Records
---
Amino acid sequence: MAQRITTLIQDRLVVAVKTLYGADLTATDLPLSNTRKEFVGDFTVVVFPLTRVARKKPEEIGAEIGQYLLQHVPEIVDFNVIKGFLNLAVSPRYWQDYLSGIYSDTTFGIQPANGQKVLVEFSSPNTNKPLHLGHVRNILLGWSVSRILEAAGYKVFKVQIVNDRGIAICKSMLAWKKFGVGATPESTGMKSDHFVGDYYVRFEQEFQKEYQQWQASAAGQEIFRQHAKADESEATFFKGYKDQYFNQHSALGAEAQEMLRSWEQHDPATLELWKTLNNWVYAGFNATYDRLGVSFDKLYYESDTYLLGKDMVEKGLEKDVFYREPDNSVWIDLEDAKLDRKVVQRRDGTAVYITQDLGTAELRYEDFGVEKMVYVVADEQIYHFQVLFEILKRLGAPYASGLYHLAYGMVDLPTGKMKSREGTVVDADDLIDEVIAEAWENSRERGTIADLPEKEQAEVIEQIALAALKFFIIKVNPQKRMIFDPRESVDMQGTTGPYVQNAYVRIQSVLRKAGDEDLSAAAEYGTLEKEEQDLIAQLAQFPDLIQEAARNYDPSIIANYCYNLAKAYHRYYHDFSILKADSSAARAFRLQLSTAIANTLRNGMDMLGIAMPERM
């Protein structure tokens, strides 16, 4: 219905412009927007661009088109022109009929299958530490984008590539081997991914001790004398020399690198240790994913994919997309795309990360045959994905035009940044626990669920806490860096998930009191209040906003829509009587309106991975 009225108006606008000015335009040339609240109307047409075809002032054009639409579109009952803006008012009867058609539709907004397939990659953690706050934003964005794409009609495949190999993983393995003394998650009572993460931190701590001692040694001082700049302090020099020390001088570094070589040579003992620690981490990851309500259709592992892409390098050489240097390394020149030159294969024939990503993209296309691939990865990797997508385009990959990097900003806490190697990272589980604690505190102050059994109270609190966490992160445009404040996230009066949940709970209370009532009397409701018409118009935006959010891979569009709809309903509930309306027609109509809003809030929040409680 919402699309029908906008489509109807745009189709008539095309005819109006042709009839009045002889110009052949399309509906896309005449976009509609929602009329701003300070003006009267439902939809607005900007007529300034028509001055070149009409050769008249914008005010005259607006008046002529408005009059034409008033005569030829029964749903348009009034218009006004303010400078170059034509505001159109839709018939209250149209909105009433619209509500009658959607209020009982529990799937309102969800659109039919469009026949297109899209793959969304998100999370993709390393197996040397638990999921942390940065992963939480990644996971919530990936999940909500997937749900929104499904609602927009796509067949969606949710995947992740687990970074389960490399020097970072070997650091955790080595630290456990040297310092673990046979400890296990079970023997220590620790969550298994936290257990492994502690050994990653332990490696860094032991490495720092070793590095400090070396700096004061004769060998360290000699390196400083030979390589430091004339005015460079020891602290500054050694801070920048850390990686070189790890690779060239460190005993721990040498052991970690030897362990990596043993893994690459398939040493049985090393592989067994690797599998043991990784399995501990996977169990921990899965527990966190379950808490967040997240799942995947397929997992890829870097240990399986790191050799992929070599065939694509050979094909690229055959097509002259790549070229070989005299030292046998293979490169691509992307300077014409302002992306510089990029190595795709080392001189010894080994792959680099970009090569692996080329192979993984091809493997996923073979697995799923998708038209689009969305990579949810922090904005630190923008250049990497620009290069990857450009290479796939030049290789002629059939999915190249559908590649998208959903780059998101970092998440900070009010106390500042996180650093995982130093052990100051905020683990996802600890963050969830903190938000749950805040939700309990909030609930005790209000006392609204104190009469429920303890188990049910805990379930409600978890729903509220997860809504707080998810909504607070998702409501921010992905491209923006953000600060997550656990206390602010549970504020029942703020722009929060619990605020939206509360609107839904309020409606459920109204509907329970109304019982199973026949609402056919709503058809006799005579005069819509402006607030009621505005609420129905707001509902009518929902299907189009789902498409917009899917098109832009931006869940904040849905989050903020849900908040604004909840806010409008809270205000309406305060200003108008529903169950004690002054007529049976008004009561029935307002129950229809409340039902439609509840369905819409539930569907919208479900796209964000947020459940709606019956009480809170």
---
Amino acid sequence: MMNSKTLFSATGLVLTGLFLIVSVAVISLIPRMRIDLTEDNLYTLAQGTRNIVSNLERPVELLFFYSEEATADVPQLRGYGIRVQELLEEMVIASAGQLSLRVIDPVPFSEEEDEAVEYGVQRVPLSQGGDQVFFGLVALDTTTLPTEGEEAGAAGVFKTIGLIRPDQEEFLEYEFSKLITQVANPEPPVLGFLSRLPIDGGVNTQTMQPTSPWMIMDSIRQLFDVRRVNPEVELIDEEIDILLLVHPQNLSEQTLYAVDQFVLRGGKALVFVDPNADTQAQPGPDGVPVPRENQASDLTAMFDAWGVDYDPERVVADRQFALMVNVGDATRPIQHYGMVGVQREGFANDIISNGLQVMNFSSVGALSQKEGATTNFEPLIQSSADSMLMEGGFFKALTDPTILLDEFVPTDMRYTIAARVSGNVRTAFPDGPPPAAPAEESAAAPVVLPAHLSESTGTVNMVIVADTDMLGDRLWVQIQNFLGQRIPQPFASNGDFIMNALDNLAGNSELVTIRSRGRYARPFLAVIELQRDADDRLRQEETELLANLRQTEQQITALNASREGSGPSPEQQAEIDRFYDQQLETRRRLREVQLTLNREIESLGATLKFVNTALVPILLILFVLVMGYLRRRRRESQLA
């Protein structure tokens, strides 16, 4: 045993000092040691997040405005606040010192409250007329803050999530990573737009008046630097981050090659094709609609290279999601199986589908993964199982949607309308660039193409949609003019989907790889199922009693009305008394049923508490005792 003389000797002091140093080192490393035992790996950051925060070129400070004191009596919100703070701390640990976190409790009438308002964090009332709380996040580039001697204030480059909504918990990691990348790269992304449709407006050759752009382009211009790409382009500018390719018809080989090489260089693309573009059935700027047989679009060779299967001669017909339309002189709306209103169950649990409610499409195609494809194919929007693929000819000159009812035979399959395609791909031009088009006499210098790429230099990221009509105003938004301004009033989520997709693609390649996560709060599914069984057994009797009670009350009211102006006869009085007795008995039985239901649910809770707090420990003790007994018997038998 070590005595005090040994402890305070030179050797003892050295050993004690070494022990303290090792202990401090181990304790300092503990925050970086992680074992995540949750089912959905809630506390494990995606590799894309780790790459984003660890490769920041300058420091970013995270300001988490959280009214901790005001939410002390709201356990759900308090638990969610802890979850958010833990996720932010994980990101700080993974950032190699480039991220810092400051948790701020903006109590009323404080400088912190003024700071939260200045950064755009929203006040949210806990209840009607109750306290207002803050629950938002600010990412701040600390290198852009004013230095000493400069004008003070909340200056610098920053981005804000005004309210961290609890119903968006699955997307927290993505939203926080996106916020950080927006601060690290504050310049708006450059979007190249290539289409022969009049989406971006134009000039009506008959009236020589300009035509308005579709509302979706107004929305895109608010967040992106939009640049038109000539349909005859031979090389897509390297400054373009995202290519928006809509209804690619009659593109030259040189233009297709330019798109192919743009994607292989790491450019992102949002592509819209259509087996039957209803938009082209309307008179164009020249007053002439495109012939029905020329209203389809495709990218056959490139889809083959990207691992996507698509038939421009097939259209999805869907009975469950069919929209109601007015046709001709019909007295009531009828179902149009070719016009699809996809509900929430048709959306994948993906960042792009976040917040979508319903999306409207018209004569859509179907996408699928090509056999032997090397890319990842992730459906984003799908039809219902009550659908089929019809020949596109049915829709070329369709005037009566009821014709589709006679031809409809569901295949019990869900068809993909929109999909995310990612991975490594090879070129659609294995023999190199196509021969140059005959040069026209022009003063412009010939285009010098960069070295040919036979495969992608990194991970390709694209979103492909088999419909272009969903971009048109008529399927998702009503527009009102107010003082010369166009005010959109959306009635579908088409615009939200486009903006979500572009926003997702606008991030770096690491951000695109981050997917939705599980929820911190997990329901007790077994308890819910048991409660549902108990509820089903007693709810029927409760419904019958309520119906009897309403019938009894109606009969009492009728008897009372029949005797107005004169007293009831003895027979009537006896009938009224009987109905009152029946009413009281019914109410008594109804209270008993409701009480029984509550008791059964409470009993389930008590049983589960017993299992968790007593039964499991008892079983463990019995197991240990049995194992000890068996070990003793085995030892005794060996000695014997």
---
Amino acid sequence: MQSNFIKKKFSFIVVLLAVLSLTACNFNSSSSTSIFNTSSTSSFVDKPSITINNGNEIDLFVGQKVQLDVTLNRITGTIKYRSLNENICTIDDNGLISAVSEGRTTVIASVGGYSDSIAINVSENKSPIVNIVTPSPFQIYQYNLKLIEYEVLNYDGSVDVSSSHPDIVSVDEVYSNMIAISGLKIGSSTITVSLESGESDSIVVNVVEESIETLSISFLDDEIRVGSFTSLNVKIEPASFINRVSYNVLSGSDLIEFEGDSIYAIGSGEVQIQAECDGLKSNIATLNIYDFEIKVDDSVINVGDHERIRDSFYQGQLKNLKANIEDENIISVTFTQTVVDAFYVDALSVGTTSFYLYDDNGLISNTLEIEVIDGNPYENVDKEEFYSDYTRANSYTDAMFRSEYYLMSGSIALQDQEPTIAKNQPKASDGKLIHNSKTHYSNYGNTYTVYDSNGEEAFQVYYGAAYVSLEEVAAYIYAWGDVPINYNEGKSASPSLSPWGEYLRLNNSKFSGDVDSYPYEPVLPDISGCGGNLIYYEIDIGTTGTDCDPNYTPAIYNDGYYITRGAARIVYSRYYEDTKEPVSSEDRYVFYTYNHYNDFQEYLNYENGWGEMFGNITGGGVISSKNPNLCNPTPYVETVRMDLF
């Protein structure tokens, strides 16, 4: 028994030594990998790599192009390409190589720390060449049209393009370097470009069936009044399926009528529509239709406050109105009978909710959303964070909260010196531009609504708020004859020492209107010193500079550290010289000049409403010249004051 044990032990040792010997032949002796770990060989299989699949090297003639075919294995990222000698060949961001001149170089494709390279040989050639640049095979969806790029060198003759299966892929048009093809049915076809000299090149085109990736719909306006129109927005990918989309009215079909691409509301209630294409259904879009309109001046109110509901009754005087409130713990709606019947929203607790009004006859209003707050929400706000996700103030209350902590209420976008002018400016019968004399105040005179030239509400400005844009500052001054809260009367101040920082604006001071000392200035309407009774003031408007006056270098008005005042100003009528009283609305003028008083344009009291330019440069004079012989200011271009809306 003992001898057998010794023999078996000896045999095991021999086998073990043989295994070790074989292992030593296949592994470096310094490796720490165990020979008994059978999974160790996996590290040599399918490792991350980037591979150029165009062979060992590429031969090109000068002027030829070729597309690199690159494969990524277990790595992701954007492939970066470079040529070691761009005098010989270049390569763009998509891997397209262009041969420039004779020579040999290398192009490299890399992602992160992985790369591969290939040699490029470029030689001169005088014989004709035809080369299809678009990589083969090429894929096109059925019923779609695509372009194939090709090039022809050293050849002035005709080019023939053919399809091996024109019933699958048709050749629609041939240009100097492009071929337009259409995919007619599923299958493959070879497109061949041939020269009369015998040279040719081909590409395989595969036509595949296109499938819908996404389908969604939404209403252009998801809440409209009876008698109004809206439309559906359809988003479908690929877009070629748009003509195959159908619509199902799931509820409220008796409330709407389709008129072409528009939807007309004929009754109040809720409408739900769903789109469908090739069996794929979209989301359900909901449209709320109301009979009469309600609104509040402020949609943000403090706990304990109340806000009056203002209404427009389109169906006659409504009786027995009631309120449907989403969350009655946040607000209540009360009715009071004083001089006139009125509804009020009473703020009960912090939160956001919505409500609408309805009567016994089933007539309903639009839905309003109310936010109830407690205290100033901007008390501990971080300014950098506030401006990184900035939106304009949405109510008078919101604007006042912002002003308390020196925060903006209007647009903060940088603006060019020239004003944007409405495309369709209303004109009177005599051809003069209309100066809109209708003013729209609310919230006890603290909110001013600006409309566009079509009578649609454009934006609102709030008294005591901060503004810097030309449109908002002009509207603010027109509304109240005063300047926004972020304006300083002086002509010098340090933004770094002001709580308004880069939104500080300067120079609310008297405008001289002295045309004897400044002969390039035109005479403004009824201005004091030129036979009139109006005292005008001026303020800076902070644009990004001026390019029409060599005395002023284009620059940002306020960069947060230094103010470059520039040549842009608003000049406005402020008070009467004889009575010292503020001007009334019929004598309210607001003008804009961006070439330092040489030319002016009148603000016409609607969005992008700016009158015709008049003044020195308009008349062909020399800018800012003190020599009367070199100045030719044209007179004020009169407008017609009338209510537009």
---
Amino acid sequence: MSQAPRPGADRRLAIWLWRGYVRRRLALLVAALVLMTLEGASVGAVGYLVQPVFDGLFAPGGGAGMGWVVAAIAGAFVLRALAGFGQRVLLGIAGERVAADLQADLLRHLMRLDLAFYRSHPPGALIDRVRGDTTALRETWAKVLGGVVRDGVALVSLLAVALWIDWAWTLVAIVGVPILVVPVVALQRLVRRTVRAARTASARLSTRLDEVFHGIVTVQLSGSEAREAARFRAMLDAFKRLQIRAEAAAAGIPAMVDLVAAIGLAAVLSYGGMQIAGGQKTVGELMSFFTAMGLTFDPLRRLGAVSGAAQAALAVMERLHGLLSVPVTLADPPRPVPPPPGPPEIRFEAVQFAYGTEPVLRGVSLVAPAGRTTALVGPSGSGKSTVFALIARLADPQAGRILLGGTDLRAMRLADLRGMLSVVAQDTALFDETLRDNITLGRDVPEPLLAAAVAAADVAGFLPALAAGIETPAGPRGSALSGGQRQRVAIARALLRDAPVLLLDEATSALDAASEQAVQAALDRLAEGRTTIVIAHRLATVRRADRILVMDRGRIVEEGTHDDLMAAGGLYASLCRLQFGSGT
């Protein structure tokens, strides 16, 4: 639904941008403003100097004393060129710094938001918000600021020259300006509305590209390149239509100024021509006036274009401010308590969790004993991974509580809580950095400790095949490695972290039989003396767990050892028979 511009809200947006980002560039802006003022004033000087040129040339004995006039006009153009160059460079520097600050703040803020936010905001759209919106703001705010000051000064100085020559001619020339108000306001609203929609469409395009490139193997193997290209083209056409509409609306504002200028100058030419014919005015006065008014409508046109750019900037600022205003629900408590010592017991008490209106956990109560291994099994979608997310406090439950060693998770600092966890997830996240960086995650780790983790996770087995060994880049999303190699790097990362709580989500799912056996042995050694929770679909990996919890549709439906659950003949026994046959 479209919204009309709101002066109060727009003012608050401008204050937010000024206080948070622009004010710290005050020295650059002051210097740029001085240069803008000089650039604008030089235009007025040119308009003023036209009269002595024409009157001197056409008067008896013309030409005497023209040297200083010509030099003054040339000097005005040189001043305009230098001032224009300087202010654009300064505004460019300030704009880049403001955009960089905004992008850094956006990333810091977004990394603190919970899983529910990321379920409704895909990565491609967020990339466009962080990079695309800030770039659009950088391009428009400098245009707005420069236009308002430079063209504002030029407009005032040129109108002063025109009024000095003949106030009546000036009134005749600008008599049509008031009729611009209503259509210009309408066009401004259209620009604001259309730019807002265009930025949303741009985010959808970025999301589509992210999904296509991330799933390129699936696209190619399924032969759906033409389908994906057609879908992207349709979205691109929708974005293009919005962009063209916004640009056309913005271009309509200076075009209307030109129409009013044509009417006003034609009226002055008719009226002034009669006065010259009657000897009341000189040709120099008319030419000076026409130069001043002609130059006046030029900054007026640009100011009209600036009003469209201002609406585009405000639309982008709304989106950026809205993103930065998303509340951070995963905050540290005002009086945090220290984490419990040693391997803690993990306890869920009647925990309920939902993404929006979609329930995931329905009153889950469970206990993972300290220093023991607890396995979570059950059909896909039963809530196992959500249990992990809540333990790591990537989200908070809507009801119930989670205790770590008797301490509510929300009573601890996030850094302290997550420092107690080592996690190996099914979907291993690697970065386009070296294997060393992916394992240490920027920590300064002694070489013997790193070598031990690399060996225990069986990473050492494939390092000789890599060009630079452990210094080999992993590639985007770890694409330079196989699935099993990526998983072993993640396991080495967890081994090196050496935390009292170990969370394993299908940790060996991508390994072949030989590697799985070696890595499983390493994980078994790592789990000794730690509170370990294992998610596994391959039930052979959880037979030796001290306790097995069976989940179904967001509830714990069975619990016990492997033998107890097989004897009970419930869901766990059914899952085992499906995987291993009746002889299990």
